[in-house]
Fold Ribbon-helix-helix protein CopG domain-containing protein.
Amino acid sequence: MAKEQTDRTTPDLFADERRPGRPKTNPLTRDEQLRINKRNQLKRDKVRGLRRVELKMNHEAVDALNSLAEQRNMSRSELIEEMILAQLQVTDA
């Protein structure tokens, strides 16, 4: 039987894997855990109707957005979405 790294039902296969440092509480490697967590995050976002948009901005604009978002007690993402929607309403009118 081949050993599958994501197989959690047979922890005895992982019993002889000893690594120095902190005790391991999850049989999966950190890379596999991150991959699974990211997949779950994308599923949650999809259910909430969110889509990913990447944007590159200079640091001055990002700093200004951070401070404005902090003043308004919201996330930077929420602030950017609010600003874009407001601009779209102005251009549609």
In short: The radius of gyration is 22 Å. The domain at 28-92 is CATH 1.10.1220 (Arc Repressor Mutant). The helical segments are 30-47, 59-71, 76-92. The mean pLDDT is 85.
